Amino acid sequence: MKCSYCQQEIVRNLTIKELLFPLLIKSERCYLCQEKFKKITAPACPTCCKPGWTTRCEECQQWQAMYPRYDFCHQALFSYDEAFKKWIQQYKFLGDFRLKATFISEIQAYFSHKKGWLVCSIPLSDARFSQRGFNQVEAFLQAAGIKTQDLLEKDVDSTPQSDKNRQERLAAPQVFKATKAAANIKNKKVLLVDDVYTTGRTLFHAAEILQSYQPEKIQTFSLAR
Ligand SMILES: [Zn+2]
Ligand SMILES: [Zn+2]
């Protein structure tokens, strides 16, 4: 079996279960690639997972003032540190599609607590999609066997958020609109998924659009924060 990040061969004995049911063998990271990524642990902001906070962080207080009727809650798995930036560079910007499998076990573990939720990934514009060839969020969800709904589309091809500073990101205009399928989310729980949470701007814009379709609640999730 190959490591789902560095692609080196992983040498380990299979368990009895895996020998009997080879389909149960999940893609995994080698020991070194396991150690590379830092999981977000307590203390972290209760509404956005920003490390180091025990109460709602300053950024979340600002969001709450801006969206007083949106009871937001964001969860993230890993710290957006140098190691994660390197991974996302290789996956998203260099287009190494194999890396969609890097975090399968962590994603499956998280989504096992989200049965019954409608999952929607943040869309790319058509132009960006053609350029990249895949939606990086959709791809890691699919690799983990998570079904998604297309509730949003992105018309305008905005400057990538990664090229902007915090103030520019926060001032960015709305770029999403709802698809016809959004009519089905009334009284349902919706989970919006992105790769990285930086300012929160993208996910708040996405949630803002879906709020008007009266879901029971909206939560958001990203691999890193
Ligand atoms: Zn590895
Ligand atoms: Zn926060």
Secondary structure: elements and pairs:
Elements: H1 16-20, H2 31-36, H3 58-66, E1 74-78, H4 82-93, H5 104-111, E2 118-121, H6 126-132, H7 136-143, E3 152-154, H8 166-170, E4 176-178, E5 189-196, H9 201-211, E6 217-224
This protein binds zinc ion (2 copies).
**Helix-strand makeup class:** alpha/beta
Main sheet makeup: 4 strands, parallel
Secondary structure: number of strands: 6
Q: What is the strand arrangement across the widest sheet?
A: 1-6-5-2
Describe the model.
This protein has helices spanning 16-20, 31-36, 58-66, 82-93, 104-111, 126-132, 136-143, 166-170, 201-211; strands at residues 74-78, 118-121, 152-154, 176-178, 189-196, 217-224. The chain has 225 residues and is of the alpha/beta class. It has 2 domains: 1-36, no CATH class; 37-224, Rossmann fold. A 4-stranded parallel β-sheet has the order 1-6-5-2. β5 (189-196), α9 (201-211) and β6 (217-224) form a beta-alpha-beta unit. The chain is globular, with a radius of gyration of 18 Å. It starts with 15 loop residues before the first helix and ends with a strand. The site of one zinc ion has 8 residues, from α3.
